[in-house]
Amino acid sequence: MTRINVTVDGVRYSDEVEPRTLLVQYLREGLGKTGTVVGCDTSNCGACTVHLDGTSVKSCNVLAVQADGHEVTTIEGLATDGELHPVQRAFHETHALQCGYCTPGMIMQACDLLKENADPSEQEIREGLEGNLCRCTGYHNIVKAVQQAAKDLSSQAVGS
Amino acid sequence: MSVTILTAYDERPDGTGDFVYRAGGTDLQERLRTTGATPHVLDLTGVPGFAGIERADAGTTIGAGTTVATVARELAHDYPALALTAAGLATPQVRAMATVGGNLLQRTRCWYFRHPHTSCFKSGGDSCPARDGRHLYGNVFDTAPCVHPHPSSLAMALLTYAATVDTTQRDGLSVGDVLGDGSDPRRDHLLADDEVLTRVVLPPPVAGERAAYFRAISRFEAEWPLAEAVCRVVRDDAGRVTHCGLAIGGVAPTPLRLSAVEDLVVGSTLGDDVVDAAATAATQGASPLPETGYKIELVEGVVREVLERVAS
Ligand SMILES: Cc1cc2nc3c(=O)[nH]c(=O)nc-3n(C[C@H](O)[C@H](O)[C@H](O)COP(=O)(O)OP(=O)(O)OC[C@H]3O[C@@H](n4cnc5c(N)ncnc54)[C@H](O)[C@@H]3O)c2cc1C
Ligand code: SF4
Ligand code: FES
Ligand code: FES
Q1: What value of ipTM does the predicted structure carry?
Q2: Could you tell me the pTM of the whole model?
């Protein structure tokens, strides 16, 4: 067992983990943060996307020990004071999900995309989300959600 | 399985038996999981100097642990052919973790190799079940006993720069020295088990380089390309090409630099006739397998696309 110190969604944890534990297993089974899901387990689908020090990574492909000393944000850490994050709200409002399985990863990736590029074109949104697979929506409403979130975030930035 | 984060390349913790190196883990992690192997994992990311880009008059050095995303971002101006290839491979989350060294040394994506219940040359067996079985994503230049293409897109781009590679045991290797020619079907690269790829060295940037990267992809099955091409050219004031680097991937045991096609392009102004001739010449010597004939057209197409892009 190895001791790791990691901040997840703003809370500091210190835990003993098996060296082979994947970050996604630690989040779900160790911390009960089941908002992050596993879709494929082979780094293809993006369902398990979280932020590691602000950059999106596939948590099925990162070991928990690699997160030692770092900061992880999951879908459960996006809302503040019970208010949905603008990207979460946009997914809800534009019906960007059907079964919802891809949604946590899709939203985390969309946040990373919008942090890099506050005003992405449709093509840039599609490219930015290429690591996230959705079997239901055909992506159309997902792109619309990201466009709406981009608008909401920029008017928020202007307003503040 | 145990994991040690190394602080020096030659560090060997007590009790290290069988071991593998890990950089970003985007290839290794999945293989360990599907095969159930439990070697000691020596993580290279803690070694000082493993990541980072250094520029000097003699050239640019990329630490093996530099991520693909960093290459895409930081070398876009000076080495556009490499940076465009880096930006075009895999997916954003993978590029954030995957390293340059790991990209060159990743293992083949062949289904049979990655399946826990089949064995082949590359997984300790003595045959290639894909040759008589399914090889839809296989080579169209069938020049080696293993029929699956080499997966490294960066190796293809590095060929066009005649980049060299240093390891803990040898300096100044060419990409060909590292990957071999496929004649030993057991290997995807020729580094020894205890040899660490430490850096890639590029010649000084060339002013006015224009570049393009293009891939044909079946998103439905995989994000590795069915065929890909990268091209870099320098043109004089009259628009005449003074230098051309052109390579293709996804179709042969290793990425191929197409010197004969480069020769067609150099001296031309990249008119339609030259682009046509180059695209046709790129498929010279193709020897498709029963299921890979479709890739001939793809090779022509991706080569045509990169040439048209650098011409425009
Ligand atoms: C969905 C998806 C799509 C992809 N598409 C593409 C694509 O289109 N083109 C492409 O080129 N790649 C593609 N990749 C592969 C990806 O680029 C590689 O997995 C990645 O570059 C490997 O780098 P890494 O640092 O994660 O290597 P690791 O997984 O850490 O290591 C890979 C191998 O190299 C060895 N190794 C790593 N670094 C060193 C070193 N410095 N010295 C000695 N040995 C070392 C390891 O032991 C291991 O065997 C894709 C991957 C995924 C998951
Ligand atoms: S030898 Fe190569 S092509 Fe044949 S099964 Fe193995 S990896 Fe696949
Ligand atoms: S579960 Fe991690 S990428 Fe699919
Ligand atoms: S909504 Fe079902 S997978 Fe995306």
Answers
A1: 0.82
A2: 0.92
